[in-house]
Structures are given as structure tokens and as C-alpha cells.
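HOLO CASE FILE
Compound: fe (ii) ion
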Amino acid sequence: MTEYRVQTRARTTGYPRARRIRFRFGDPEPMAKYFAGGDMVFSHFIAGLSAAFPPGEESFIRSVRRFADQIGDPELKKRVTGFIGQEATHGHHHRQLNEKLAEMGYPIEWYDSPAAIERSKRIEERLPALLHLAATAAAEHYTAVLAERTLAKPEVQALAGDPEVRNLMNWHAFEELEHKSVAFDLYRAMDGTEAMRILTMATLLALTLPLTAVGLTVSLSRDPDARRYPLSLAKEMVTLFRGPIFRGIGRELALYLRPGFHPDDIETTELLERWRAELFGNDGDLVDHLK
Ligand SMILES: [Fe+2]
Ligand SMILES: [Fe+2]
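Model generated. C-alpha cells follow.
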């Protein structure tokens, strides 16, 4: 482990809370089609990620709500309330960006269509509630790893391109780190087993790369502007998978497979404090976005 400093159980302190915030995409300057610094592949990658968040986060919320009346610990109850508030707000603001991206021609509307949402609800209803929660806890490790990379690596900051998209990603990444252990602690409190936790993550890990690669290829193949530049696309695809988002990510995701793992084993407190000042301190980048 070179990039992660592992600590022994420094508990995340405080309760996550949803911030009342607003974003203005394409205002006053219209967004460029390839808003991520002209990179077609990276722009489609962010568009796909942003499109997947609202329905995904709503599923996370449903998974923790299935246990709402069984939480005895008042502290955990407050953390779960904060988690739900933050995830609901994330979905709301990503939907605003997604509408803009769909207008700009990104083929992303199917992610959040009523049919797709119904399908995922039907699947969830058939899953044992603890397995649904195990999937949320595992997905939260993904978002925490991506959030840590977004906030810790200047190269990732440089990739975002459009300033308001970067603001959205930074705010989302910050709050993901604030609540990174909530679903996990709820899973433990509900007596979820280590075997189910680890197997769920192993399954997700096996699916991630193929699903990301297929999703991205389909998205690009439906973009007539991008299709005109196959060589550039191939180059940008290689750069994406070898770049600061993906390089070494498998190892960081796989930490979750270790028996006894806890999200707070990974030290992110200092990073959070630095970004709290950067985003919400005096003269913070997002102070003027707060309502
Ligand atoms: Fe989120
Ligand atoms: Fe989250």
C-alpha cells in the first residue's frame, strides 16, 4: 500500500449533514460539448458516472431505509439520517447536470428512466435486505476510493475541465468521505456477516471493469461527433485507464476484501479537513453556492 495510510480505527467523528447548495451548469458561459478539457472519452466517462448516481443513490437510500425501524443506537440513527439527506441531495444536483448533458447529446437518459428504476426496484425486492445493504456498503467503498482520488490528486482536479462540473464533483466527493462508513456500520449493526460482505464486493469487483468499458464504448459509439475521430478515441481510452483515476485502483478497492476491514481504517480525516477549508471556509470555493 503506497498511496493509502492505514490507521487503526480512528472513528469518523460528527454526523454527516446535507448542505443546502445550488449549482449553475452552463451559466453564464455555455458548457463545451467535451467539457472535460476537450477529452471526448473522459467527458463521456463523467457523463456516465453522473447519470448513474441518481438512481444508484436512491437504491442506497432504499437499502438503509429497510432497516430504519431496527436501529437502536441513537448515534447510528443520526448518521443514517445524514447519509440519506446527503445522498438525496447528490441525486438532485446530478439530475440537473444530467439534464444539461442529455440536451448536449450525451445518450444517458436510459440510466434514470422510469423503466430502469422499476426494474431495479423489482430486483431489490427479491434480494434479502441484508444483501441489498451489503451491496450499498460495497458501493460506498467505491465512491470513497474515487472521492479520495478526486480530492487528493491534483491531476484529477485538472481533468474535470468545466469549473462548475469540478465544483459538483468536489462537493460530492467531500460528502462521500464524510459518510463513507455509515452504510458499513449499519450493515455490521444488523449482524451482516463478513462472508456476505466480502463475497458481495468480490462480485462487484468482477463486474466493474467490463461494465465500465462496455458502457463507455456504447456511449461513445452513439456520439456522431466522437465517432469521426477513432484514433483520438483510442488514445484517450488508453489515457483514461492508465491515468490517475484508474491507475492502481484495483488494489485500493480490494482492501475491502480483507477480513476485519473497516472504512475508517483508511485515513482521510486530514484530507477532509483540508477540503473543508478549501470549499466551505472563509473564501471557500463553494461558499457562494450555499443557500
Ligand atoms: Fe453520493
Ligand atoms: Fe455515498
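CASE NOTES: Confidence is low (pLDDT under 50) at residues 1-10. The chain has twelve helices and no strands.
CLOSED: yes
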